[in-house]
Structure to design on (136 residues):
């Protein structure tokens, strides 16, 4: 699926993505500043959490909950990952088998990351305000 959007379209883009996907593991491939974190923020909100979403700065992963305390999602940013071993060491395989949503920024840092049940979202910058999303 391909979608072209600006920031004001994000709530409806998030809804469209959530209707399209049939698994909860989403990998975001995009250059710096394309809007990975911004899109994940819209998805978390659409999924019903009021948690603050920002790029994980410590320990590579953020955890989000629903307002009733239930675990909703894990948000990874692999940008600073040294190598794939570090991902295994942090227990990535266990996270992937959890029943939570999984949002991953910079998945290209883990070339062997190809779980069958993963959707890929590629974001391209068309101009300052406009992005093109390709979701498979
Ligand atoms: N259509 C759009 N969708 C998302 N962000 C947009 C859009 N148009 C402009 N922006 C701006 O682009 C920036 C995207 O920043 P964001 O941190 O989400 O990118 P990122 O891909 O997560 O970057 P990084 O890899 O550095 O973490 C924001 O400043 C946002 O306001």
């Amino acid at each position: 699926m391909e979608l072209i959007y600006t920031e004001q379209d994000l709530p409806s883009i998030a809804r469209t993505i959530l209707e399209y996907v049939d698994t909860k593991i989403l990998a975001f491939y995009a250059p710096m500043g394309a809007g990975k974190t911004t899109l994940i923020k819209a998805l978390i909100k659409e999924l019903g959490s009021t948690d603050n979403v920002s790029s994980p700065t410590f320990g590579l992963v953020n955890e989000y909950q629903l307002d009733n305390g239930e675990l909703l999602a894990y948000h990874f940013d692999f940008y600073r990952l040294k190598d794939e071993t570090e991902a295994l060491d942090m227990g990535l395989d266990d996270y992937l088998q959890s029943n939570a949503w999984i949002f991953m920024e910079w998945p290209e840092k883990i070339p062997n990351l190809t779980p069958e049940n993963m959707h890929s979202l590629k974001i391209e910058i068309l101009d300052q305000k406009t992005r093109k999303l390709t979701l498979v």
